[in-house]
Each structure stands twice: as C-alpha cells, then as structure tokens.
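Hey,
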Amino acid sequence: MNSGEVSTQHVLLGLLAGGARHGYELKRAHDERLPQARPLAFGQVYATLGRLQRDGLVVPAGQGREGGPDRTAYALTEEGRVALDRWLATVEPPMPHVASTLFAKVVVALVVADADRARSYLIAQRRAHTERLRELTALKAAPSASLDDVIAADYAINHLDADLRWLHTTLDRVADWHREVHS
C-alpha cells in the first residue's frame, strides 16, 4: 500500500480501529468523516475489504441483517493495526510533480490560444474558486457544522486560497507576456 496517495485501504482500516463494521457502515462513516472527499462507491468498499481480508489485515466478524440483506461485519486484525499504525506514522512527502487539471488547462490554453483567451479562462476560474470559497466559509459558519465539516472546509479553503494566489500571479504573468509580445 502506497503512502504517497489517499489510501482507501488505510482509511477503512482506521474506521475499523473503533470496532467491527460492515461495508454499508464503513461507506457511511467514510462519507461523514471525510465530508469534502469523493464519496466511496459501495463496490469500492467491498472490493477493498476483499483485498484487506486477502492480505490478512481484516477478518469477518459476524453477520447481521438490520432489516435488509445479510451483511458481513469486518474487524481489524493485529497485522491490520500494525499496518494502520505504520501508515499513520509515515510523513507524507510533498508532491514532486504538479498534477492539477487547472495547471494543465492554463498551460494548454497558453500553447493553443492567444493571451486574451487564456486570460478569460483564468478570470472565469478565479470566479469559480471565489464562489467555492464563499460556500465553504458558509459551511464552516453553519450551526450544524461538525468538527469534520470544519476541518475539511479549512483544508479545502487553504488549497483554494493557494490556487487563487497562483491564478492572480499567472494573470499578471500572462499580461506581462502579452505586453512584451505586442510591444
């Protein structure tokens, strides 16, 4: 399991650290505890549980019905707890490469379009980022906001803020470039 990317396996191990759960409970807990993350698909949860069981990190811990089909609960093994502890203790290295659709679009816009079109894209993107910042700020201020909601919003706000600073700097650079080319 790679520590350099979001690891569904490790997140599920962490959710199982508090006790046995079945796949539906794990999906719901993931989506509640990581409110700004991409929701997990049920198929992904069950496929991941299958790999974790195959690798000896979880074991079936009984079945329940709860008004629906039989559901197998899974529990963390000692080996699973060790893998989780190792993952939690591993410092994440800063990303070595820029892997952003936003960055790629701006570069491609500059390659295939003129500066005016690139500038229009940058302005529209800045507007979208600013609107998302407003939404996240409102989410944090909501009386119903949980700690998970607030820390997820803080994380997203900080990333959006960095993107906005980059968009502003890039707009300035494109304007400077446009002036140099057309002088």
